[in-house]
Design a protein that fits this description.
The complex is a heterodimer of chains A (about 375) and B (about 300).
Chain A lengths: L20 E12 L2 E12 L3 E5 L6 H9 L6 E6 L2 E2 L10 E4 L11 H11 L4 H14 L15 H13 L5 E5 L7 H18 L2 E6 L2 H7 L2 E6 L2 E6 L1 H6 L4 H6 L4 E11 L2 E4 L8 E4 L9 E6 L5 E3 L8 E12 L3 E7 L5 E7 L14 E6 L5 E3 L2
Parallel strand pairs in A: 3-8, 3-9, 6-7, 7-8
Antiparallel strand pairs in A: 1-2, 1-4, 4-5, 9-10, 11-12, 11-14, 12-13, 14-20, 15-19, 16-17, 16-19, 17-18
Helix pairs in contact in A: 2-3, 2-4, 3-4
Chain B lengths: L1 H28 L2 E2 L6 E2 L8 H9 L4 H8 L1 H34 L5 H9 L6 H12 L4 H9 L12 H26 L2 H9 L4 H12 L1 H16 L3 H6 L7 H11 L3 H33 L1
Antiparallel strand pairs in B: 1-2
Helix pairs in contact in B: 1-14, 3-14, 4-8, 4-11, 8-11, 9-10, 11-14, 13-14
The chains are: A alpha+beta (about 375), B mainly alpha (about 300).
Chain lengths: ~375, ~300
């Protein structure tokens, strides 16, 4: 999880009521004909943030970004940049730059001229342009490739040229549209950390669009999960993961077990969920007040479950089942455990022992256990 | 072996239909006129054996080429052709580029139709199409009647039998050769490049000059050569639409050949024209190669 500020205080301007947002979406709606791409959206993004827009394709995240860049205008509502409505400002007059998904490097210009392109359109003197381009080339470690044309460099290098070009004009806001989509996994992971370093060095506010939740979790200070033109939840990556506000978010981010059933209060902040015939109710805690009898969803991450061959005595929740499938991922394994009632619950365990010494195998009867704070109660 | 036989087909084609006829023309250009059939001398008489070949070779000289430099009609005609070809290439580019641009920007479902419309004129004979321009451009033609009816002019304009009519004819005839290569280049242009240019501070206009034009350069070059090369030697259009003052080398060649029946001088004119055109043809080939490299 990126922590943009090195200060001991947590970087969280969104929790500070006095902080001024650099970008404000105020009840923004965007329609294309009959289709509503963005539906009455209100959102603040703060300076120095690394903000991720996450969602499946068609959820409106790209439209949101294109409105920031100036390629689309909102149908209703206002977008403020530094307190000023930018609806009437064309893309070439905005202090916003974008890194395109396809990189959109100019094929007829060298790496150097690509990076200098935006600077030459500004009123910067020539010698300063040269200094700035050299600085940008150093930032992305491409000094040796300045004279090459885009088709003479690799995909990872193109990505860095595109980044350098979009940062060259020192924009207030940098938009990144699926910036790492075209890279292979290993390079993508390395580049994610590079991006975070560059964001820290330059202090620019970054808004990244991605459909890769792992990427969003890694780089962002806050993540907005979107669906059908609405923001479902905006929170830091750990909050999104540990405290999703809805079944949609819980399900979209990472792996999760979700069961449903009516709730019975058993004490202060304590509830029981009756979820399947012949199973003990789930004992859990929840800080919200829930009326008895409400049907709720209970979400629990597979890694929050412990899988054992003996019934543990110290856990409030235990479930017995049979191992149906084992997904071996090297460092961890995911066990699909079938309960007598037919449901399948996933549990994850770290492979601390080598595989031939693993104590649990297919068809074994096992016990799944978890504490009363391991899961989340969702009422939507 | 298979590769050699495959390559040999186009080479045989070129040898039979280009090299051999060219050598014949070259030979005639080195001969003298004669009142005979064919109307030049010497002709090769193989019956006399080796002596015949020697007599034939002795009869060849550069006289006609020297003559071309003496009479200023010829170099004036070459120059005038060059001027007309250059100017009409420029005009075709100015008309063709917006058409190609519009086609490339049109919705996907429209493009095949637009492409069809560009190619459609080829379904009618070139000669008939040029001839029908006479009906449009003449003093009583459709254009003048239309302008008189609109009240834009009081007296009919003289367009036919002037250089203007030749320009109209060339632009009209060769427009598809300009539109198609430019369209091919513009169609490949990634729209996000223009957005990137705007994002980096370009206005729409400067994005056009800094991105669209450079990236369609090879289409522009290819189209220009495809218009310039045939326009340089054009005969039908100046003959039908141009006046007596329109001087083009194609017309001079025709007159030498048919009116004067001076085959040797006509051949010399043709040989020089070919040599002049080799330069743009080589440049055109280079451009095509560059494009092929860029596409890879």
């Amino acid at each position: 999880m990126a922590q943009a500020a090195p200060s001991p205080a947590r970087f969280a301007p969104w929790d500070d009521p006095d902080a001024k947002a650099i970008i404000q979406f105020q009840n923004v709606t965007k329609r294309f004909g009959e289709f509503t791409a963005i539906d009455d959206l209100t959102l603040n993004i703060y300076e120095h943030e690394f903000f991720a827009l996450l969602g499946p394709s068609g959820c409106g995240k790209t439209t949101l970004m294109r409105m920031l860049a100036g390629f689309e205008a909102p149908t209703e509502g206002k977008i403020l940049l530094d307190g000023q409505d930018i609806a009437a400002v064309p893309p070439n007059k905005r202090a916003v730059n974008m890194m395109f998904q396809s990189y959109a490097l100019f094929p007829h210009l060298s790496v150097y001229d690509n990076i200098a392109f935006g600077l030459k359109r500004s009123d910067m003197p020539k010698d300063q342009i040269d200094a700035r381009v050299t600085q940008m080339l150093a930032l992305v470690q491409l000094e040796k490739f300045a004279k090459r044309k885009p088709h003479q460099i690799s995909g990872g290098q193109k990505q860095r040229v595109a980044l350098a070009r979009s940062l060259a004009k020192a924009p207030k806001l940098l938009l990144l549209d699926e910036p790492l989509g075209a890279l292979d996994k290993k390079l993508r992971q390395d580049t994610q950390f590079e991006l975070m370093d560059i964001q820290e060095q330059t202090g620019t506010t970054f808004v990244i669009v991605t459909h890769d939740q792992e990427e969003a979790m890694t780089v962002a200070s806050r993540v907005a999960v979107m669906d059908h033109g609405r923001i479902i939840q905006v929170a830091s990556p750990d909050q999104i993961y540990e405290e999703p506000n809805s079944v949609y978010v819980a399900d979209f981010i990472g792996d999760v077990n979700i069961v449903k059933g009516p709730v019975t209060p058993t004490g202060e902040n304590k509830y029981d969920i009756t979820w399947a015939d012949g199973q003990e109710p789930i004992h859990t805690t929840c800080t919200r007040d829930i009326t008895a009898g409400t049907t709720v969803s209970f979400a629990i991450r597979p890694e929050k479950m412990t899988i054992t061959t003996e019934k543990p005595t110290d856990r409030p929740n235990t479930i017995q089942g049979k191992v149906l499938d084992i997904g071996y991922l090297g460092n961890i394994s995911t066990y699909h455990v079938q309960l007598p009632s037919g449901e399948i619950i996933k549990a994850q365990a770290t492979n601390t022992r080598r595989i031939h010494r693993r104590s649990i195998t297919w068809e074994d009867t096992v016990w799944l256990s978890f504490t009363d704070t391991a899961g989340v109660v969702l009422t939507d | 072996m298979r590769r050699a036989s495959l390559i040999s087909v186009p080479y045989l084609w070129l040898v039979a239909l280009f090299l051999v006829p060219f050598l014949i023309v070259l030979k005639i250009s080195l001969s003298d006129t004669a009142l005979a059939i064919p109307p030049y001398a010497p002709t090769l008489d193989l019956n006399q054996g080796w002596a015949g070949v020697r007599a034939w070779l002795d009869g060849l000289d550069m006289e006609n080429f020297v003559f071309l430099t003496e009479d200023n009609l010829y170099w004036k005609a070459y120059l005038s052709s060059l001027k007309i070809a250059l100017f009409s290439t420029l005009l075709t580019l100015l008309v063709g580029y917006p058409i190609a641009y519009g086609m490339a920007r049109a919705p996907d479902e429209w493009r095949p139709t637009l492409m069809m419309l560009v190619i459609l004129p080829f379904w009618t004979s070139f000669l008939i199409r040029v001839y029908s321009w006479k009906a449009i451009l003449s003093q009583e033609g459709f254009l003048n009647q239309f302008l008189l009816w609109l009240g834009v002019i009081n007296d009919p304009l003289t367009i036919l039998n002037t250089n203007i009519a030749v320009y109209i004819g060339i632009v009209y005839t060769y427009l598809p050769f300009m539109v198609l290569p430019i369209y091919a280049a513009l169609e490949k242009l990634d729209a996000s490049l223009l957005e990137a240019a705007e994002d980096l501070g370009c206005s729409r206009t400067s994005a056009f000059w800094l991105v669209t034009i450079p990236l369609s350069k090879q289409g522009i070059v290819a189209g220009s050569f495809l218009v310039f090369i045939p326009a340089m030697g054009e005969f039908v259009i100046p003959a039908l639409l141009g006046g007596s003052k329109t001087l083009m080398i194609g017309k001079v060649l025709w007159e030498e050949f048919f009116s004067n029946r001076d085959w040797p001088v006509a051949s010399a004119v043709a040989v020089i024209l070919l040599l002049l055109l080799i330069v743009p043809i080589i440049l055109f080939q280079r451009n095509q190669e560059k494009q092929r490299e860029a596409d890879q």
